[in-house]
Amino acid sequence: MTDTRHAPRRKSATARSWWGWGRTDQALPDGECAALASLIPGLPAEPLPVPDLGGIDLAPPRIAPPGSLAPLFSHDPEERAAHTYGKAYRDVVRALHGDLAAAPDLVAFPRTETELVDLLDWAATANVAAIPFGGGSSVVGGVEYRGGGHAAVLSLDLSAMDRVLEVDTASRAARIQAGVLGPDLEEQLRAHGGGLTLRHFPQSFEFSTLGGWLATRAGGHYATLHTHIDDFVESMRVVTPAGTSESWRLPGSGAGPSPDRLFLGSEGTLGVITEAWMRLQDRPVHKASAAVRFTDFAAAAEAVRAVSQSGLHPANCRLLDPGEAALSGAAHHGESVLVLGVESAHRPVDGQLAELLALAADLGGSVPAPSGPDAPDTPATGQSGDGSAAAGSGDAVGAWRSAFLRMPYVRDGLARMSAITETFETACTWDRFPALYEEVRTGIGAAVEEITGSAGLVNCRLTHVYPDGPAPYFTVIAAGRRGREAAMWDEIKTAAMEILARHGATVTHHHAVGRDHRPGYDRQRPEPFALALRAAKSALDPRGILNPGVLVDPLPGPTG
Amino acid sequence: MTDTRHAPRRKSATARSWWGWGRTDQALPDGECAALASLIPGLPAEPLPVPDLGGIDLAPPRIAPPGSLAPLFSHDPEERAAHTYGKAYRDVVRALHGDLAAAPDLVAFPRTETELVDLLDWAATANVAAIPFGGGSSVVGGVEYRGGGHAAVLSLDLSAMDRVLEVDTASRAARIQAGVLGPDLEEQLRAHGGGLTLRHFPQSFEFSTLGGWLATRAGGHYATLHTHIDDFVESMRVVTPAGTSESWRLPGSGAGPSPDRLFLGSEGTLGVITEAWMRLQDRPVHKASAAVRFTDFAAAAEAVRAVSQSGLHPANCRLLDPGEAALSGAAHHGESVLVLGVESAHRPVDGQLAELLALAADLGGSVPAPSGPDAPDTPATGQSGDGSAAAGSGDAVGAWRSAFLRMPYVRDGLARMSAITETFETACTWDRFPALYEEVRTGIGAAVEEITGSAGLVNCRLTHVYPDGPAPYFTVIAAGRRGREAAMWDEIKTAAMEILARHGATVTHHHAVGRDHRPGYDRQRPEPFALALRAAKSALDPRGILNPGVLVDPLPGPTG
Lengths: 560, 560
Prior knowledge:
Number of domains of chain A: 4
Number of strands of chain A: 17
Family (chains A, B): Belongs to the FAD-binding oxidoreductase/transferase type 4 family.
Oligomer: homodimer
Low-confidence stretches of chain A: 1-13, 372-393
Number of helices of chain A: 16
Radius of gyration of chain A: 23 Å
Domain FAD-binding PCMH-type (chains A, B): 100-283
CATH topology of the largest domain in chain A: Uridine Diphospho-n-acetylenolpyruvylglucosamine Reductase, domain 2
Shape of chain A: globular
CATH class of the largest domain in chain A: Alpha Beta
Strand order of the largest sheet of chain A: 12-14-13-16-17-15
CATH superfamily of the largest domain in chain A: Uridine Diphospho-n-acetylenolpyruvylglucosamine Reductase, domain 2
Largest interface: A-B, 94 and 94 residues
Keywords (chains A, B): FAD, Flavoprotein, Oxidoreductase
Mean pLDDT of chain A: 91
Region (Disordered) (chains A, B): 367-393
CATH architecture of the largest domain in chain A: 2-Layer Sandwich
Organism (chains A, B): Streptomyces marispadix
Strand content of chain A: 15-25%
């Protein structure tokens, strides 16, 4: 394999952490890790060291790339390590403990769709599992091979296919390659002119790709109305082992079941998304936001329900329960905080915000004195996570926002201290929410205590809301035991999936299924749909090489 | 078969036409047919007589129902005749000519899901094609058997499963059986209280069912934002030969590809939809509408584009081109008419309408003097067809609305005079619309002249609009030749499908695929998606009994 070029990773690679979230220069120093951990009784005094690849034995690749495609491959240890896991808590913890047993044999960086087709052809012939990596920000084991009898494992990294290829300003749409990361996508749209933006800002924005968003049905910027990336898809191209699928660019169609909707959420099991025509928005110039405090969380949730059913469509509508509000510094004394944000490219939004605040006040909220509109956002501040629309106005909004953006790095710092710190998210109808909230708090609280031996925090925020129900996002923080962190979390997670299922709440609202959510997903997915999905997979991926273990298990034998 | 009860049809059956649209007492009398036809040169002087079933030989049923299920069946000739076709022009014409060769052998009226399961079990065993009938308003050959080697044909009529079973007012959703017709559905919701409505008003509202809307992805009331019924589905139950699929009630989910989206648009080929939890709306109390005139159609279309991208979300946004405006009496002298309607359950809408009108005026429209808001609608006037939000205000709005509701009856009257009168609809992105519009007008104009020997009318309206493109709806009126009406239309339709495909416009925006759109759909559907869909069908319907010929042809042999 001496002729194998170590293909360069994306531009930002120099600063990217192979074991933890984001950029190495943003990671918490040892002292800060220890200081944070001192707030949680029962943790070790010293952080786990930042892992050193030199001290970790990676098994040698079990297969050599074919000669003609060799320049696309890398078997560089850091590339293999960086492509082993996503960025879930359990991924970070395993990396911290030097466990890279799941490392792919090879990483490939196709630059064109033709090269991708060739790679899949080779993989099918050689019985190599092919796992689309996206930006590697999966928190559900979506990019990690966990067996299936393949000869070797290939991680597919589309970061070289990262261009905005075309912009149609009349229809406000752009043809965009799947490998582009969020900030680069917005930067290229800006350079095209026309004032258009995709305005899809999941919390992972900096480190996730368009293709990953589509494959996992990511939840983005809009807290109401259009929450999932699905609604912004005009057409898609997907390379499957059975051929390339390209839907027509259509604003709407009733011609049979939607082809795009089969590939949206298919998580790399049916094909590899290479590009999509995406619907764009005019960049908003009018913005306003405010935080409303509630002394009673149930009243706050009722206010959010009223907002969701008001037809006012706030861009941001985020409710922090007392624990979450306290943790982020947005409020104390047991208050819940509702962050509301409105925005428009076309008209002032102060009246809309005033109407929202009046509604919240009617339902028991303490509304702040009026303030001026926010400044227009920039690419940097525009990255606002899974639902946060507007920066700045009000201390509670600002406090929450800072905490939100810092959260994944804090998580890694706590992980180094062997704290358990992870989230899970769901959605349910409004009639079920109060009971679900209570049972998660008490049930997971009890599970944490039983599993870890001490009490932990179980907080909740609502990140997206629909007229028929909210998407609650739970955070769990507890003292883990060094070496047992991942196992402990897995037990807590199992308890969580059981509670969600009992309340008819989805196993995931926007984190996807991957491998970690399979038990809950297998319970939730209607069996006839499972039959159909398995049959579709067998037709498109008859050798079963695409992201095996995710979503469904293959049929016993190929039918295609 | 003497023990077979002739199951009663739905309550409205007494007045329903078996051969034409709607109610027999609404059909045009002979004199009116002739008067209408006198406007089109070259037609016969006398209408075809209303067909008499006594004079039509129906082949005897080729199969007897199984004893235990016999009470569910009818072989009454009028039931069989009424379940032979949908209500497309070519269906009406064939019935007028006494062609009922495609009549189903039997019609079954299951009253419960268990009975439906038993019926499908029997059909699979006996190799009987089972065709879900919905309300029978298909205009694409969706309910008509056209071969496939089955022993017999069964039309499945779910009109006895027509209840609103549950209403969740907190989440604004209702569990509704699939066989309910539009007016009955709204009446039951009204009786439940809470001021909720599904507010889905396709043109076929009176004579189509919830199950039909879901199976065909019907386009409803809202001209912008949410046009398809898809967006109002919270969960669905579908009986397939491989088991019953029930998705969870969820406001949103990112757990794999959406199960509902596979069954939405499946047109009875994968299973029979029995019930759904549907998202409801608060009944609007504030309404306003206005008509804007344009001397230039291109400018009018640009104004509609601006409206669609303005974020103002009018409930109605319907553009009539000069021919369509003249035909409906909404305008003359070559003007185009844009009908705008706004509505809200929560707040006055005059400001929203004023903003829409200002936008239209800026782009060249003649805006009327302000008028008061419309009265709240009633169940009767609330039925407003595919996108018309508001009744009454302004002569142009009223004229267009009256013509719209009368249209299907007029169509039947003209059909009796051997005029060709039919529509086709599509959607495309804004960048393609001007060229598409021109080519349809000239290309179909030329085709009509070549096929019929004389010039016809080719008009256009936009029924639904999206930020990235409109859904144009074309009307063709021409002099047919008696006995050749359906064949002539088929030739025109073939030309239309070719033009649509050339411009990347969908073969259907909301009429579905059925059998008539198969050539266009086969071209449009990505081939890997066709593979997946065929595999899914083989898994769910291994004997290939469900609505054979629609959407896809089965795999050569069962794989399930």
